[in-house]
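Fold this complex.
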Amino acid sequence: MTVPALEAERRVAVLSDALRSSGLRLTHQRLEVAREIAGDDTHPDVESIYRHVRERVPTISLDTVYRTVAVLAELGLVGRVNATAGATRYDANLARHHHFVCTRCGLIRDIYSVSLDSVEAPEEASALGTVESVRVQLSGVCKECRRKESDRER
Amino acid sequence: MTVPALEAERRVAVLSDALRSSGLRLTHQRLEVAREIAGDDTHPDVESIYRHVRERVPTISLDTVYRTVAVLAELGLVGRVNATAGATRYDANLARHHHFVCTRCGLIRDIYSVSLDSVEAPEEASALGTVESVRVQLSGVCKECRRKESDRER
DNA sequence: GTTACTGCAAACTTTTTGCACGACA
DNA sequence: TGTCGTGCAAAAAGTTTGCAGTAAC
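Structure:
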């Protein structure tokens, strides 16, 4: 699945500018990794980015791709699809509910909300397949992490 | 973080009944893993479940915990928090959007929807921390997987 | 010319698998 | 008693890190 060329170029420009203005070097490898992520809307993993970029830059290594996506994610230029990093986490709560996820420490808390429960799948989604569950994920920074951060600033 | 005892017991009963009625054996290990997940609302990973269960069943092995959560997830008795299994996936689309995720093949497609964009964080979430993003995750089975499934049934 | 970045290799973490023994139904 | 599940060990998959050479600024 590919992103329209114009939109992909726009995204690459955003990524390049951001790297430069952060004082980071705009290397051949970083540019090609950025180009790959920007032009692929299947939400690829590192392995897939690596395979595609290698067709254009045969000497690139897998760990450079890992480091590059880490840099881009750090700058907020690309998102990670999963709620949290690390190991898979499990949930025995089968009642309808939603999640608050702290992007710093990985805390997940269940949210019960009548208004969130009433969210319905739009046409666009039903066109892709059968929607079996609708879950709202609220991401942010929990109070504990916020407190630790302001402590550190002093 | 612990689940109220009564609710935890209810969940254990549901899990035990489901195992039995699926013709699976209700072993000591499975019961204790079920008990642990049911009583813990922090959405633990396998390592954490293992550590806690081992206090009660010192001989249990880590791979039994892996196999048990896989069985419970297969039966739909516990949920996996992450959108998809396997490697971390990246997204260069910084515009506000939502996701349709196929639980069979891991397909992720972006969903643009004005009505989903208007979903707001409830009080309950703001009480836990600063909410920075609200994303709706629609899970289900994509058309392709549905088709493959009905082919197989014939 | 510096310094940050890359590629290589090795380590580490998370998860899966094959096999023989033991326990549930 | 037969079969499914467990524990052990080893391997596979995914990710991170130290180091020496290379390229960006």
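Chain A has a mean pLDDT of 93.
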